[in-house]
Design brief:
single chain, 222 residues, alpha+beta
Length: 222
């Protein structure tokens, strides 16, 4: 019998709906199962944000996913654009690059295309619970470029890395302040900042102990 990942995901979601409850482990498992549905290169291109998060929950650090490299490139572009002016726009750009709203749309589209119940994602309260579980799962797991991206023409992410460098050069921005990683972490209340999940974009890394980073709140209100 041929393996049917969409059918298995459909049965899984029906079971959750009939039981009337959803555990933290099941929330994360939904992405693992969705990853099997979009495994082909064509489907990954049709669901780029979903593909990114499906891979993110499966790895301690994400260094080979093209969507992850595009997140780094988009963040770096926003920093270069505001280097000589107001950096406030970087915060919006990082949340746009992480694109949690796009993740919700792609999951619903995938589920509807495969006749899978999408109530957990279409109802806002359910969606926010799912997002909290997702952010908890990917916290402290950075998106990075491979170590050899600057020297090996065959390295994963090489195209995005070179695009970053070229764009920085065109803007007159120092090349050694390129974004090297972005991660999400939970922070307790810090001064006027409320507790919650925050992104950390590292823009200069002399060593694992010496680096410069920008921090801002993850926007998951949508």
């Amino acid at each position: 019998m041929k393996f049917d990942p969409a059918g298995r995901l459909r049965s899984h979601m029906d079971s959750i709906k009939n039981r009337g409850g959803l555990t933290y482990a099941e929330m994360v498992d939904i992405l693992r199962r969705a990853r099997l549905v979009i495994e082909s290169p064509l489907l990954k291109k049709n669901y780029p944000v979903l593909s990114l998060y499906c891979d993110w929950v499966m790895h301690g650090e994400l260094g080979k996913n093209p969507g992850g490299h595009e997140v780094l490139r988009a963040i770096d572009k926003s920093i270069a654009d505001t280097w000589h002016s107001d950096p406030a726009g970087v915060h919006d750009a990082v949340n746009q690059a992480l694109d949690l709203g796009g993740l919700r749309k792609e999951i619903i589209r995938l589920f509807e295309a495969n006749r899978i119940d999408s109530t957990i994602f279409s109802v806002k309260g359910n969606w926010l619970e799912f997002l909290r579980a997702l952010l908890m799962e990917i916290a402290e797991r950075p998106i990075i470029f491979p170590d050899n991206v600057a020297t090996d023409q065959r390295a994963k992410g090489r195209k995005a890395f070179l695009a970053m460098q070229n764009y920085r050069a065109s803007k007159g921005v120092p090349l050694d302040f390129s974004v090297t990683r972005v991660a999400i972490a939970y922070r307790e209340k810090d001064g006027s900042d409320p507790p919650g999940y925050y992104w950390h974009a590292r823009i200069k890394e002399d060593s694992p102990e010496h680096f410069v980073q920008i921090i801002g709140p993850v926007d998951y209100s949508d």
